[in-house]
Each structure stands twice: as structure tokens, then as C-alpha cells.
Design goal:
Blueprint: E1 6-11, E2 15-17, E3 22-32, E4 60-66, E5 69-77, E6 79-84, E7 89-93, E8 97-101, E9 106-111, E10 121-131, E11 142-146, E12 153-157, E13 163-170, E14 172-173, E15 176-177, E16 195-201, E17 206-209, E18 217-224, E19 227-230, E20 233-236, E21 239-243, E22 249-253, E23 258-265, E24 273-275, E25 278-280, H1 283-296, E26 317-320, E27 325-327
Antiparallel strand pairs: 1-21, 2-3, 3-10, 4-9, 5-8, 5-10, 6-7, 6-9, 7-26, 8-11, 12-13, 13-16, 14-15, 16-23, 17-22, 18-21, 18-23, 19-20, 19-22, 24-25, 26-27
Amino acid sequence: MSSPVIYALTPIEFRLDLKDPFLFTAHHIDYFPEGNSELGPNEPATQNEFSMYYGDIVPGFPEHPHTGFETITLVEQGTVDHFDSLGNGGRYAAGDVQWLSTGSGVEHCEMFPLIHEDKPNPFELFQIWFNSSAEQKKQPADYKMFWREHIPHVYETDASGLTADIRVISGKYNTTEAISRPPHSWAAAAENHVNIFLITLPAHAELKVPATTATSNRFCYFYQGDTLQIENKPIQRRYLAELKPDTEIFLKAGNSEARILWMEGEPIGEEVAMRGPFVLNTAQELDDAFRRYRATRFGEWPWPNPAPVFTREQKRFASFGGGVRKEYPESTPAEQ
């Protein structure tokens, strides 16, 4: 369907297919049981309650390569252990965001340890696959942590006294700016207007999201709640709306709290050639990248196995510079 403001509405099961500069977004939801001594599930899955993905003992994605784009991982519930071929590792959890620029190539793993032995381990995350320009695809791989303690929030109260919470992951919401993105990201430049927000509306709350540029692509994914009104049109949970970018958008929650992933940005405007975990500009570049990966593995894997995890007791942290520098969320933003 289409309207002057809503260009398209798409029901979503798992994958959100998007437009430049976004590639797609995966929405993972799992109802993991209590964890066992190895940080895996203490019972097998029944009725599709959860997926092990490619993990044998612990759910997750063991060692695998990427090049030419970025992964932006937003954790809503649960824990993620990260290891990479640069020698870095880390643990991040509910409310944290990892922004990884894969650049000219990196191997990493993302495992989902089940921390709690005495209660279930519900898990939910979004992973946005975000494209890079041809020049950015040549840069060294890099990543940055956005700890939940440091992510800016905007609170807007409507005429009924109900307050919306907007987490500013990328870009700017009115005058509130996000944490800076990695330097070789399309989202790093303000003129690209890459805005990513996580919006929470109390039941019946109203919010007007500011307009962006006419040339941007803009998406609203309503992922939790009963109904959401977009410009007075009700939509159901787990629908993706493509929206007119250069107009203010009116939102209103239904009878329960509504949660929304909002994404918008200027297109890169280059050809996209995608094969598995590689995103380049031409088929020849993909062939060259796979050949280079087979020869170099994008660096030696420095970890004892393809699917390592930290101990249950490990707190949230990230390491950089081949593990030389460590960062913890308890640090102040000025210390990062």
C-alpha cells in the first residue's frame, strides 16, 4: 500500500530488507532456558523457542569473515561475546551497541552465552548491515562500543503528560547528538544524516519525529506493542514502514507500550555486489576478495577455538589495539 507519507508497509518475520545506505536488518528473538555449566542451554529447543544458530555448545555465530560494510548490533536482552582476528575481544549486553566497520576485511565471532543458571535467558538483538562507500571498503577494520550508560536519551512529553524515550544511536535528534561513529563510516559525516533511534512510547503516548532530507531513505520498524498509529493510520506489530523523509511524522502508541527502531540516511549511490558476508561494488571485486580471504584469512585467528566465550563472571568490557587497551562501561565518556 502507499499514501502521501507511508510509501510501503511490509510484515516482518526476521529480516528487514531496506534501502541504501542500509542493506538489511536482522531481528533476533530467542527464549533461551537456564544456562548450563558451559554457558549453553540446559535443555534442547522445543516449538522453535530458540535457535543455536551456528553454535554447537553456546548459541551464536562462530568465526566468520566480513568485508566492505558495517554491522551495527543493538542488544535489547541478553549478552554477546565478541572475538576478532585483530586480537580484540569483549562482552556487551542489554542496552549496549557495537559498531563494527569491516573495511578491507576481518574475521570475528559473536556468541550468545547464557549467563543465568537459575532463571531463563531471554535474548533479543538487532543487527543492521550498513553499507560503506568504495573508499571506506578499503580502510582497516575497526569497531567502537556504545555503552548503554553513555548513549544519549531524549525525553519528550506530550500534551497528556506522557513521556517518550528516544535513544540516539546515530546522528542527531533535534539538538541531541549521538556518540561519534567509527571514522571510516558513511554515518560519521553529519551531511549524510544517518539517524538511528530506538523509540519507546508509553501506552497512548504521542510523538512527532522531525523531518530529514528529501533525498534520504527512511524506515520505521514497529517491533513491540499492540498497535501504532503513523499519521493516524494504525499498523500492527512487526511491520516495517517506509516513510516520506522530508516531513514530520506523527506517532501514537496503542493500548500498550510501543517500541520502534527508526532508521534514515542519505544513500551512498554506488553499485552493490553482495555475496554471503562480503559487500563490494562489482562481481570482480567479490572474486578478488574471496581469493584474498583464502590466502590470508584476514589475519590469523588468535583464539583457542572458532567459538570462544568468556567465563560466566566476566563483566562487560571491550579491548582494542590487539587487546592492548581495554575499555569498561564504568569509565566516563571523556575517558573513552
